[in-house]
Amino acid sequence: MESFTNETIDTTRLPRFEEVQFTKLHPFYWKVLLINLSITLIIVGVLVGVACYNIEELIGLQMQVSIAYVVLALLVFYFSYLGFKRKAYAFREHDVLYRHGVIASTTIVIPYNRVQHVALHEGIVSRFFGLAEIEIFTAGGNSSDISIPGIEKLQAEDIKQLLMGKIQKQL
Amino acid sequence: MVTDFSQPQRQSPIGVLVMFFDTIRIYARALWPILLVWIFKFKELNTIYLVAGIVAIFTIIAFIAYLRYRNFTFFLDVENQEFILTEGIFNKTRTSIQLNKIQQVNIKQSLIQKIISVYAVDVDTAGSNKQEVGIKAVSHEVALELKARLLESDTAVNDTAESQLEQSFSAEKQEHPFVKVGFLSLIKVGLTSNYVKSFLLLLAFFFSTYENLRHVIDDTAINEQQIDDYFAGKMFLEIIPLIVLGLFIVILIMNVGRMIFVYFNFSVTRQNGSLLLSYGLLNTKSTIIKPERVQITTITRNYFQKKLDILQIKIRQATSGEKQEKNSAIEIPGCSAYERDEILKLIFQQLPEKGVMLRPDFRKLGFAVFLTIVLPLLGFYAIKYYSGTGNSSIDYFVPIYVAVLSLLQYFKYRNYRLFIHNDFIIKQNGAWDISNEIIKPGKIQAITTSQLFWHKSLNIGSLTLHTAGGDIQFQLGDFEKIRGYVNLWLYEMEVSDSNWM
Q1: pTM: predicted TM-score of the whole model, two decimal places
Q2: Listing from the earlier edge strand, what are the strands of the sheet with A146-152?
Q3: Which of B318, B490, B493 sits opposite A139 (nearest CB)?
């Protein structure tokens, strides 16, 4: 009780979340994305190709369909590259920040004392590159859970330990 | 009169009647498609068979109800300090509740119970949201005595002065509900709200029954050609207002009916600092609201309701349970402004205040107009142009559509506000039904800020506050101010371990 004070807070001097230095995702993660996307696009491409040779209405349009598909694929690659570039995260003393989004730049902030649990997720391609994904869950439901991909496995383990420690301390 | 609860007991004999209606309700819910077919095939059926069938069904239901009554017993096991209920005809269920686990005992009456003057006793245990156990029909004396016995053992077991005090406090308070929504208020609410919801329900019901009926009686009755001819014969413009008027009346009747059916005899009582709501015409429901679990409180009122001094309160609680429960809101229909203040005081310990006001940018209006007026019109004219055909009378509806939607969007924009106070964040929204969503900053779980890249130079952006009871979003406000408040809220959340649940 003796140390209790209740001074007015100078709101202009509060730490500003918009000025935080964000960490970009690991460069390898772009390769992971590239491989995953290529696999999906190849599978879809094969299906479209089969359709083009077998459905009568499409046989005359083979050229147009393939051009459209290539353009679409390039666009998908371009936007995922932009998306990859925009994704960034930061761990502050009391909260975690995650920024993403190409058209709309979105930043979500979760204080550690609102985190319910943390999970580590490794995709098959990600594991090959030694990367992992951290998933952070809150009580706010799907819209306020975040998953940060493209973090080095060892570092991700450390972050998970850090978060678990912070949660433990709150309880 | 002292009743001996230590021996297994049945309910009041007249309780068979309650069981009867309860059984009808259960079976009607399961068998309504068959009932529907019967109703539509009414003329074709042999009257004798029909009467015989109905009599047979009622006899069977009565028999089942009687068996259910015979097999339902309850008694107090004094030795083990347990309250034991057995029920079921073929599948016997035996429920035993430790007396010291009983949180509260509620005595209630639905309409049927009121008519035959019996009471329902609901036992609420710790650790669950729904009533686990209920006795459907006992006389008032038995109900009161049972309640006393159940709670008396409770205080005897955890023999602390505090709990005794609380018990007596709750017992005293329980008899006086501090909000009672009367029959008239329910009619008022039914007449002034939920038009759109009822319309959609009606539409869904219409289409589903239409589909079902088509399968059942495709050879008889409804002849589509006849209907089409009928409509074509009349002037299109003449028939529309009639349909609208008819729909409106049906919707009003449905609304009033639904309000009375669901919320009949709505009362709010204070119990140990939480709110106990009970309502319902045929089956009384009751829910408990714990103030510390309340996440979002929404107060809704439209112009008519303002004049009639009624409003609706919707409360979203944090539930640790299943997903589907998470978004179930508790509604209190038809409060007066005074009752609203009482409820809010109980939830928040003080009346929420509207603080600093944030307005959306005018682009919010522009975008809404584009989405709801410009795009549909473009689509409409495109279809009209390419299809070549077109009933010119539809053109008359274009200006009406534009006028109505412009008005709606304008009011929606004008009411779209975020009020930020030290202890409360209030979001105001809605064109006709104006709702105020109230949260405390401490209930926030996470904060999202978002900005479209072409809005960067304009310095406007959106804010989403995530709580355990849902999200609150405010779009296109002054981004500098929003970020300032986000920093403040984060600071407040991080320095204190406020209890959000």
Answers
A1: 0.77
A2: A115-121, A131-138, A146-152
A3: B318
Q: Which residue has the tokens 């929504």?
A: B181
Q: How far is CA A148 from CA A97, A122, A134, B498, in A?
A: 10, 11, 5, 27
Between CA B412 and CA B416 the distance in angstroms is 6
List the single residue in A113, A140, A141 with the smallest CB-CB distance to B497. A113
CATH C-level class of B15-174: mainly beta
Instruction: Name every chain B residue with its beta carbon within 8 A of the beta carbon of A139.
Output: 318, 445, 468, 500-501
Of B134, B180, B345, the residue nearest B279 (C-alpha): B180
Report, at the CATH architecture level, how domain B356-495 is classified.
Roll (2.30)
Q: Which two tokens stand for residue A10?
A: 């100078």
Q: Write out the E strands in B393-433.
A: 417-420, 425-429
ipTM for the predicted complex comes to 0.89
Note the Cα B196 to chain centre separation in Å: 16
Least Cα distance to A151 among A125, A122, A115, A124 occurs for A122
**Closest-CA residue to B273 (of B123, B153, B162, B426):** B162
For chain B, domain boundaries: 15-174, 176-349, 356-495
Q: How many domains does chain A have?
A: 2
Per-residue tokens: B238: 């003449």
Encode pLDDT of B363-398 as tens digits.
Answer: 999 999 999 999 999 998 888 888 776 666 677 788
Sorted by sequence, the CB contacts under 8 Å of residue B94 that are 6+ apart come out as: B84, B85, B86
Report pLDDT digits (tens) over B132-191: 567 888 888 888 888 888 777 544 444 433 444 444 444 444 456 778 888 888 888 888
